[in-house]
Design a protein that fits this description.
mainly alpha, single chain, about 70 residues
Length: about 70
């Protein structure tokens, strides 16, 4: 498994207490784990997908139009 390092600028680091540092570490870890779980789910869905290039392109166009309507672009 890979390693993730978060660097904190020195001007901020000097104000971090050990408790605050631990809280930030735990929040960052929780967020990263959540994003990795979402990525894993997406990969699993994509592997099970039976879309071919043509149907994927059609779906893409439909999604673009729906998003454009939703946000008032069209």
């Amino acid at each position: 498994m890979g390693e993730i390092v978060i660097r904190v600028p020195e001007e901020i680091e000097r104000y971090l207490t050990p408790g605050l540092r631990k809280k930030i570490e735990l929040e960052a870890l929780k967020e990263i784990e959540m994003r990795l779980l979402k990525a894993r789910r997406f990969i699993e869905l994509a592997e099970k997908s039976e879309l071919n290039d043509e149907s994927a392109e059609t779906l893409s166009e439909e999604l673009k139009k729906a998003l454009a309507r939703r946000y008032g672009v069209v």
